[in-house]
Amino acid sequence: MNDPLNNLKTSMKKTVFKDLSFSNERKNAVKETIRRKQSPQPFQSWKEETYLAVLETIQYESCHGYEISTKLFQKNECSFQKNEGQLYTLLHLLENKELLRSHWLKEKKYYSLTNKGKKYLIAYKQKSTKQGVSLKNLIEEASL
Amino acid sequence: MNELDQMAVTDENIDDRKLLINQLMNEYSDSVLHLVYTYVRNRMTAEDLTQEIFIKCFEKYDQFNQQSSIKTWVYRIAVNHCKDYLRSWHHRKVTLNEKVMNYIPSKAKHVEEEIITKSEEDSLVNAVMGLPIKYREVVFLHYYEELTLLEISKVPNVNINTLKSRLKRAKELLKHKMIEEG
Predict the structure, then answer these.
(1) Given this model, what pLDDT does residue A118 score?
(2) How far is the CA of B11 from the CAs of A111, A125, B35, B54, B84, in angstroms?
(3) Matching CATH number, B108-182, of 1.25.40.10, 1.20.1600.10, 1.10.10.10, 2.20.25.10
């Protein structure tokens, strides 16, 4: 049995795997991710400003998801950065709550404010804190 | 090892599961990393993927049925994750571009590598690493991890006879390569 492959293990250890080890930093990164993943946050909740920013982007014209995402980015609203999928969750939520409506056009889904949405946006802007809380509460209620 | 299998059985809640993942990492992270490296052939990517693999183990732990050992289960997740990655858009487009870019500005690293590869054991390793994936994986699992063909058949879920012929074919390919290189 003179199989050169029998030396493979020692050879690999000496060459390609030399100093190749899963570092403690990497292990900690795993632990951290796990911790973050299962910290109790059953429903995604967004900041007040985020709701507002999203509503504002479609205040005057209907936009599709990517446009909204770009506009949010321009506004320096980074809640959805590297996590763009969450934007659609929020859009669906707002749609369910009838703050906005959507229609399909050339394979893109365009969102625009409903009258209810406009009212909320204006009300929020006028007396920001009080109404704002109610807007947030309202939407979070909807997510339950 | 046995202790780990036992823990796997008694896992009830999240805290236990976290503990289990920590132990899995302490026990197998280097071997998983090495396994991943044989697929992706890049250290950084291998480390990233290994990290994702352990997170996946944590998430999918419900789906671990006690039929295989936990090591086999982890390996299987690792192998599938690597293959997903190799098929991914990111790998096919971005990594290839990077490779091309890296190649253009400086050849220094390659020269260095070439010098190192002079020795005989390196040429064997290189030949193995240069095999197509389906052969590379069986050679690695068999000769490096020293798994039996039966155990291997559970990792990428391939019929044992297929593995036998792949192993045979792999050896032929290697022989050719080694002869070519002198």
Answers:
(1) 83
(2) 46, 51, 26, 16, 28
(3) 1.10.10.10
Q: pLDDT tens digits, residue range A97-120?
A: 788 888 888 888 888 888 888 888
Interface of B with A in 53-72 (CB under 8 A): 54-55, 58-59
| Residue of chain B whose alpha carbon sits nearest to that of A3 | B171
Closest CA to B142 of B153, B152, B155: B152
* Residue in A with minimal Cα distance to B120: A11
pLDDT at A76: 79
Choose the mutation target among B17, B124, B139 for the interface with A, i.e. most A CBs under 10 Å.
B124
Pick the more confident residue, A98 or A39: A98
Q: What is the ipTM of this complex?
A: 0.72
Structure tokens at B94: 């971005």
For residue A29, give the nearest of B51, B128, B129 by CB distance.
Answer: B51
Contacts by B150-153, CB closer than 8 A, 24 or more apart = B151/B72
